[in-house]
Amino acid sequence: MLKEMNDSSFELIAETPRFLVVAKRGGLATVPLAKERGKKTLLSEVGNYFSEVLLPMGSQSHEGGILHRLDSETCGLVLIARDRVTYTTLKQSQQNGHFIKTYLAATKPSRYTEGFPPFPDKGTDYWVLESRFRAYKAGHKEVRPVTADSSSLVQKKGGSVIYRTTIERKGFNKQDELVYQCSLVRGFRHQVRCHLAWSLNPIVGDRLYGGVRADSLHLAAVQLQFVDPESNSWSEYVWLDPPEWTSYS
Asked: From residue 229, how far is each of 44, 133, 175, 179, 234 by CA, in Å?
């Protein structure tokens, strides 16, 4: 049975002996920076109820049992290991491609193209975007796709791994924002945000990538699929109460 949480920073979705699935609110960092270990984060908030998740489990000891991060402004589902063996098992499963994250993003069209390579002709309703990534602008706060069409100089700045985002148009919400479903197996920082901006459909509230102003970033992680380390079979967890803007028709 799920514990009752009197804390608006996260919602407990699932509790098993080996892991937790929680939904964090937007505006809360998933983990602290190494130099800000005392900062309030999703990890510290969950640790108030499940202290074992604070134990060092991976190469970044200050990240505890967190198995993947969401940008601070992104809300939604996060998977957290409760012990080192589970952490190691699930990390290996991720590396083997057995971990699928699905997001809903509400967007508004834009002509913001600064630093982006030509967008491939992918139609209008369903795309599979693939690229490497490079840091962009002073401070490296943004990223940009790197493709075969990028200049030789840009090619050298890109990493070696190709990242893939599956994007499907779902419909319009009540705010007349076009909602897309985005899925990925291996994630890079800002991957969904950058790939949607590349398609000229930046996320509402994402000023960094040309999105219109809003009170919050309209990006939510709504589904996790992964191999359960106990049963060794695929499990699926869905956020049943995401923000209102995720509803479309």
From this structure: 24, 31, 41, 33, 9
What value does the mean pLDDT take over residues 65-88?
A: 97
Each residue's pLDDT tens digit, 104-117:
999 999 988 899 99
Provide the residue ranges of all domains of the chain, joining segments of one domain with +.
Answer: 10-96, 104-209
Q: Is 208 helix (H, G, I), strand (E, B) or coil?
A: helix
Domain 10-96: assigned CATH number:
3.30.2350.10
| 63-71: Cβ within 8 A, 24+ apart | 63/31, 64/31, 65/19, 66/30, 66/31, 66/42, 67/19, 67/91, 67/94, 68/94, 68/99, 68/101, 68/187, 69/30, 69/31, 70/24, 70/30, 70/221, 71/189, 71/190, 71/193, 71/217, 71/219
Number of other CB atoms surrounding residue 149 within 10 Å: 12
Note the pLDDT tens digit of each residue in 166-206.
999 999 999 999 999 999 999 999 999 999 999 999 999 99
Q: Between vectors from CA 179 to CA 176 and to CA 181, what angle results, nearest 5°? A: 175
